[in-house]
Amino acid sequence: MAVTSGINHVVVTTPDLDRMVQFYEEAFDAENVFESARTDDDPRMAIIDVGGTGRYVKVVEIEHYALRDHYDESTRPIERLGLAVETLDQLRALRDRIGALGLAVSDIERLPTQWILSMPDPDGYLVQISAHVR
User: What sequence ranges are listed for the domain VOC (predicted)?
Assistant: First the structure.
């Protein structure tokens, strides 16, 4: 059995922090629980609570940050972000919410162990939301 209790946070980078925070707030009703300004040593960043359970997306603005020079479209820091809901009904309601915002969202797909839908975030990263089959 693993000695850890799960994932605390995932870091995504963006050239526009405000746009990315707004995306998570509107699409997922997530809460921006912490934000810091850019300093000479650190980029501007926000911590978004995506579930009310201490699971976070840390969004780092890299427009003026040295790490940005190390990435291009083919070497993004993450391949996709996976979020979860408890039930298929919640997944359907989330799909309807995202669609009502005018955002692109896939149909719900049944995989062997879960139901899943996909959408791009404002920077084109793949975001998947799943509900495990019970």
Answer: 6-132
**Closest Cα to residue 28, out of 124, 95, 89?**
95
Instruction: Catalogue the E-assigned strands of the chain.
Output: 9-14, 31-36, 45-49, 56-61, 80-84, 109-110, 114-120, 126-132
What does pTM read for this prediction? 0.80
Q: Where are the domains of the chain?
A: 9-132
Question: pLDDT per residue over 32-72, tens digit each?
Answer: 999 999 988 888 999 999 987 778 999 999 865 444 455 55
Q: Which CATH class is domain 9-132?
A: alpha beta
- Of 128, 25, 24, nearest to 81 by C-alpha is 128
Q: What CA–CA distance (Å, rounded) separates 47 from 77?
A: 17
User: What digits encode the pLDDT tens for the residues 7-39?
Assistant: 778 888 888 999 999 999 999 999 999 999 998
To which residue do tokens 């995989």 refer?
A: 111
